[in-house]
Design goal:
The complex is a heterodimer of chains A (162) and B (295). By secondary structure, chain A is mostly helical. Chain A is 69% helix and 0% strand. Helix content of chain B is 24%, strand content 23%. Chain B contains 5 helices and 10 strands; from the N terminus they run H-H-H-E-E-E-H-E-E-E-E-E-E-E-H. The chains are: A mainly alpha (162), B alpha+beta (295). Chains A and B meet through helix 1, helix 2, helix 3, helix 4 and helix 5 of A and helix 1 and helix 2 of B.
Chain lengths: 162, 295
């Protein structure tokens, strides 16, 4: 394995789990989340030698992930699957209460893609308004309005208290 | 639900939900290699310029699809069926409203066996374009070696190319795209600059000429001598070996697109330390009369 492949594989091993969590919140489904992560990392590989400073890798990869998600929803690849914590590979039963906790994921899946992405970046990835705007290639004003609308929608969709 | 409530709720949700087993790095690496091989094949067969020209002028690839012939816009993430589509034709306009397929005839002119003319007046225009590009790069302090061969996935390939590509007849008039690609050298670094020239009857100027660039890169209009030039800083994840391009439409419909990159794609040659041109300089070059080679 050459240096590029070694570096890339090491980064994938260390960060794909976290990226997949973000993708799960965006997609509402582990299978789609894994497809999204794979697509994003394939794109990252294209530009691997150009990314430069390793501390920028996470931000860069996150950008690719979110933009690929948005592009796929625009292109009609989005399909409404029921959010599930389970996968075909898992044999062990889930703990009680998982269905309750999926209420939030289902509610997120009901939001328009950009609102969903905004909320996930702001409150799961804990990005600032500025960094969220960069990731989404929009203005900070748009991030603020999408955040506000998204939270309003979540309040309507998710029973309180949560 | 406050912002903090939502933040905590997300964390509780993800703590409770069990993820599948870890993804395999070998699987993703294999997928990345397949993707690279596909993109390299596209470059080798059609030339980088043809692919990027498609992005620059918002080409809709009129390709038959299972769903009934919808155009697929280049410039964003490649759809899985990219390798099935034919080479793009520049239309010069990005908007759906104006991107109507022109009446075209793809029959090759007499004497040609493929779309590239190897001798004759159109071929000479490509050669002229290459000469103009060399002059520009020399003035900017860069070498343009004609004998530099690629390394890595382009091992042994000549990197300097020029061609005149026949796009077909549109409304009875032959359409050609002229391309000149050169490695550009300074110190140990090797970058890439190419220029692409075609003529179209489509209207539009500046960023009108650039396709949906939200994922390919944000377009900015730069004014040069009162004329609008579209400039794009390309998203690396989409086109890893085109960093920036600028596109301008002359009054007679000639479109000039110039792209620059820090490194020469698909090779392992060391990159330049900085791009040859600033955005303003790149934009200004699109108006350079030496590049207006169309009749």
């Amino acid at each position: 394995m050459n240096d590029r492949d070694e570096g890339f594989a090491a980064y994938f091993a260390s960060r794909s789990g976290a990226m997949r969590g973000t993708a799960f919140l965006l997609c509402g489904d582990w299978h789609r989340a894994e497809d999204l992560v794979q697509t994003a990392f394939v794109k990252l590989y294209r530009a691997w030698h150009r990314v430069g400073a390793r501390e920028k890798l996470d931000a860069y990869t996150r950008q690719i992930l979110v933009r690929t998600f948005l592009d796929e929803t625009r292109g009609g690849f989005r399909h409404r699957e029921e959010p599930t914590a389970d996968t075909a590979d898992r044999a062990a039963p889930e703990a009680a209460g998982v269905e309750d906790r999926l209420v939030l994921v289902r509610a997120l899946a009901d939001l328009p893609a950009r609102q969903r992405a905004t909320l996930v970046l702001r409150f799961w990835e804990d990005l600032s308004v500025e960094d969220t705007a960069k990731a989404l290639r929009c203005s900070e004003g748009t991030v603020k309005s999408q955040t506000s609308r998204g939270l309003d929608a979540m309040r309507d969709l998710v029973p309180a208290p949560f | 639900m406050s912002e903090q409530d939502f933040r905590e709720a997300l964390r509780k949700t993800m703590d409770a939900v069990s993820p599948p087993p870890q993804m395999s790095d070998a699987t993703v690496l294999a997928a990345a290699h397949r993707d690279r091989r596909r993109r390299r094949t596209l470059w080798a067969s059609a030339g980088t310029a043809v692919v990027v020209a498609a992005i620059a002028v918002g080409v809709v690839l009129i390709a038959p699809s299972k769903s009934g012939g919808d155009g697929v816009q280049v410039g964003g993430p490649q759809p899985k069926s990219t390798e099935e589509v034919p080479p793009p034709r520049a239309t010069g306009s990005a908007t759906e409203e104006t991107n109507v397929p022109e009446e075209s005839d793809d029959t090759l002119p007499p004497g040609m066996t493929d779309r590239t003319q190897q001798s004759g007046p159109e071929h000479e225009r490509g050669v002229t374009l290459a000469g103009a590009l060399d002059e520009v790069m020399a003035s900017a302090g860069y070498g343009t070696p004609g004998d530099l061969k690629g390394t890595g996935e382009l091992a042994g390939a000549q990197l300097k190319r020029d061609q005149a590509n026949y796009d077909g007849k549109v409304d009875g008039v032959e359409k050609w795209t002229y391309t000149a690609i050169t490695p550009v050298t300074k110190g140990d670094g090797v970058g890439e600059v190419f220029v692409d020239v075609t003529k179209t009857s489509e209207q539009g100027s500046g960023c009108d000429l650039v396709g949906s660039s939200e994922l390919g890169g944000r377009c900015e209009e730069i004014t040069v001598d009162g004329k609008k030039v579209g400039f794009v800083d390309v998203d690396d994840s989409i086109h890893e070996h085109v960093d920036q391009f600028a596109v301008y439409r002359h009054d007679d419909g000639t479109i000039v697109n110039i792209s620059q990159s820090l490194d020469f794609g698909f090779t392992d040659l060391p990159a330049l330390s900085k791009l040859p041109f600033t955005p303003d300089q790149l934009a200004a070059l699109t108006l350079d009369p030496r590049f207006k080679i169309t009749g």
